[in-house]
Amino acid sequence: MAKEAKTNAMRMLDSAHVNYVLHTYDTSDGQIDGLAVARKCGEDPEQVFKTLVTQGNDKNFYVFVVPVENELDLKSCARSVGVKSVEMIHVRDLLKTTGYIRGGCSPIGMKKKYTTVYDETIVLFDTVLVSGGRIGTQVEIAPSDLIRITDGITADISRS
Q1: Where are the strands (E) in the chain, listed by range?
Q2: In this structure, is the dihedral angle defined by the CA atoms of residues 147, 112, 24 and 119, taken in order, positive or negative?
Q3: What does residue 8 show for φ and ψ, rounded to 5 degrees?
Q4: Residue 137: which of 111, 101, 110 has the closest Cα?
Q5: What is the pLDDT of residues 25-59, one digit of tens each?
Q6: How far is CA 55 from CA 39, 74, 86, 116, in A?
Q7: Residue 37 is inside which H or E element, if any?
Q8: Alpha-carbon span 56 to 40, nearest angstrom
């Protein structure tokens, strides 16, 4: 079997000498939502995080990473980055903004370095899963490494 091509996220982790475990899952059924990914990877949904991209009223982009079962609390998100408001960007703008597509958006290795905020629950786990930068891949990584490599912060930004 051919070797899996590396994504930007994987290359960034490799160049920073960060340990991670690559998980792949079948996408042929079209189910790529966070809960389906957690199930397919055999992981607790609280330990699998999705990456959401917003734009603030200041026109800057902000990245928020939350458990797949949770929703963003936009007011809390705005407070965490010191702006009045944030709104989700349209899916059609995701690729040009981040270099990733819906279902394959990783907080690691985006086209530009954006302010990245992780839900505070991320520190409760020894490892978490986030997108590996392509639909069908997840990387399992220590939260401290993930936060460090993205210059991220943690805050209470989601609700169940």
Answers
A1: 21-24, 49-56, 61-67, 71-72, 86-88, 115-119, 128-131, 137-141, 153-155, 158-159
A2: positive
A3: -55, -40
A4: 101
A5: 999 998 888 888 989 999 999 999 999 999 999 99
A6: 30, 11, 5, 12
A7: helix 34-41
A8: 34
